[in-house]
Amino acid sequence: MGENILGRVIPDDVLGNKPLFAGAFARSPQGRKASPPLKAVRPGENKVLASIKEAIKASGLKSGMTISFHHHLRNGDYVLNMVLQACAELGLKDLTVASSSIFPIHAPLVEHIKNGVVTGLDCNYALGPVAEAVTRGLLPRPMIMRTHGGRVRAIESGDLHIDVAFIAAPAADAYGNINGVDGPSACGSLGYAMADAQYADYVVAITDNLMPYPLHPISISQSLVDAVVVVDKIGDPKGIVSGSTRITRDPVGLTIANYAARVIEAAGLVKEGISFQTGAGGASLAVAAYLRKYMEERHVTGAFGMGGITGYFVELLEAGLLRTILDTQCFDLVAVKSLKRNPNHIEIDAGMYANPWNKGAVVNLLDTVILGATEIDTDFNVNVTTSSDGIIMGGSGGHSDTAAGSKLTIIVTTATRTRLPIVRDRVTTVTTPGETVDVVVTERGVCVNPRRQDLIEKLSQRRLPILAIEELKRQVEDLTGKPAPARTSDRVVALVEYRDGSIIDAVYQVE
Amino acid sequence: MKSLRRSLLFVPGNNPGMILSAPVFGADAVILDLEDSVAPNQKDAARRLVSEALRTLAFGKIERIVRVNALSTPFGEKDIGTILAAKPDALLVPKAEPESLRRVSAMVDEMAPETGIIALLETALGVELAYQCALVPHVNGLFLGAEDFTADIGTSRSAEGIEISYARQRVVIAAAAARIDSIDTPYTGTEVTDEFLADVRLARKLGFTGKACISPRHVQAVNEVFSPTQEEIVFAKRVLEAAEDGRRRGVGAVSLDGKMIDPPIEARARQVLMRAGLLGVEGGKRNG
């Protein structure tokens, strides 16, 4: 048994030689980067292969290997299912699927796990039938759950070796240049596919939109791509991007957003060159809308905005309130179009965005980030991985990365979710450590991490409803009662890896 | 202790979620509504829900007002009995006229003498007899209900509110004469628009002490408009200092910034500081 500094116990048999979490910046890298094999493509050679099966055969993929996918097609992705179906038909077994996220549309994975085609999963976020089946103990080995930055770290350090990367390509040319901004399945940025393309032993582009050479713009270069396969459809546009994300109209959500923007203002961050990230949800966007008012009043221009990029960020860019958008992922069609035509809307890869072990990730330069939470404990640890009954329904994504990097990390959440209180004595799963979380904003008040005495001082000069997190917990428990902890067995079904590769928590099997 | 009633937020009495979150929007008072927002077949359930909410939920410093049904309806008497037993801070009595108010006042006397009454003046007779309404024991506020009122006088509402201008002024003056609060009719849209802001500013200019809100989104702006501004507070302090100084020096009339300070100006300054004191707002050192 190993116990990390947050008091989370990890059984030795699943921990293996992985380090235990010892603090957000406790580990430093050593050694050299992993590297893909040298290759040569000679004049006259053709990269276009007839089918996914042909590509699998050409890649040399064997049972026991690791294949990877990106999640830019989100819940409209057909590629992961098509590739796994082909692997199953070819008799491959014991594969590890390293997909940056797993969505409900990937439900067929459950059968592949039952049949032994897939025995390992590695992702940054999982939602839907696969996540639920994993929590119920379907997978023989614990699933590894990383952060967006941590996944790139794992790939570059060799912790996560990818044998074959299958890259869903909304647009590709016959020599393997790829972008995400053209075609019927356009998804915008391809930020999460770039490390896979650089470090996998073999890279297959799968496209439904073969364009004349040379494709432009180029997001992933031909020099990284071994083969191109054309299929009818790589995804369902309805599941890839939403029409448009609206700012919430819910008065509780607006109250929270208003407090959050006032916290940012009180912290002294509304100044020339401000940088911020918000989620794409309606409440997070509302924070941006309130922040916009402060920026306009003070004639302040932001240096950059990040996050799941939506039309609202594009509006800020076009209104001159942001100089640039740094984009690893687009969430709606307005964002996709903007990325294509606006040179100040810049596609960046997940490593530049958030990898803790490179020569400087953009998250380090964030002034503030607005994040959500499923649960928070009185030490400010946040769970966005499991529901309160212990079922996996998310994961860090960029949560831990941006919380660690930004000057001011704000969690916005309602104080209750239906009848459950948000603040707990102990979160079901720690995703993001409390030492990287500064402020929790709810409709019932604002809680500042006691580690940030400087902030407490600044905020108490404003008319904000500040209260201790223990007091918020007490008030909410008066309304909801105190829920029982999730009922789980002692079998680990997933390891939650912090961005630096250490194990911050484990998810246990739910019957 | 008396607190301000700048913003009074209506919350449907049959919606548990909205009642739970009612205290979080910054309103000075919440009005848990048993009347127009509750369908007749839900009146009993809402009555019970609101009475339990009064007993169990923590509203902090927020005033808890319940709008009961009028005594002329089959629900009024039961509402008042059940709600008074749960000790609200005040009842908002619809279709208020002196006669019906006196009956409610007698029930309050008997069951919960600490409870206040706000008279919702929404009939021509109620508005015309506003001052008599204000004098009924326990009545501590007059509230203009413009929708029913305009129907009663045979017209309809307009954005600029010309049709209720007399009623507004009558309510303000009657309340001021009786030294109680005057509350303006809510703006009926749900967005924060220029039209809404103009309506709030007009209410304050007319002399209302507060305004009802049907949307939580309106609360913040109403609070702002009905709060003394930093400039007003600083000016009021200077007025009182100058007046005090004049008295010390035995000078009858003093002037400030070239203008005479007479008793009404001094009285207004005291009022501003009283409201600021109730809000816990201090005059800033800096002007602005």
Largest sheet of chain B: 8 strands, parallel, barrel
Element-by-element helix/strand order of chain B: EHEHEHEHEHHEHHEHEHHEEH
Task: Report the portion of residues of chain A in β strands.
Answer: 15-25%
- Shape of chain B, please? globular
Estimate nothing, just give the exact number of structural domains of chain A.
Answer: 2
Question: pLDDT average of chain B, as an integer?
Answer: 92
Query: What top-tier CATH class of the largest domain in chain A fits best?
Result: Alpha Beta
What is the name of the CATH superfamily of the largest domain in chain B? Phosphoenolpyruvate-binding domains
Which structural class best describes the helix and strand composition of chain B?
alpha/beta
CATH superfamily of the largest domain in chain A: Glutaconate Coenzyme A-transferase
Q: Based on the coordinates given, report the CATH architecture of the largest domain in chain B.
A: Alpha-Beta Barrel
CA-based gyration radius of chain A = 22 Å
CATH topology of the largest domain in chain B, which one?
A: TIM Barrel
Contiguous low-pLDDT stretches of chain A (5 residues minimum) are none
Number of separate helices of chain A? 16
**With helices defined by DSSP (H or I, 4 residues minimum), what is the helix count of chain B?**
12
Class inferred from helices and paired strands of chain A: alpha/beta
EC number (chain A): 2.8.3.10, 4.1.3.6
Organism (chain A): Candidatus Fermentithermobacillus carboniphilus
Protein name (chain A): Citrate lyase alpha chain
GO molecular function, one term (chain A): citrate CoA-transferase activity
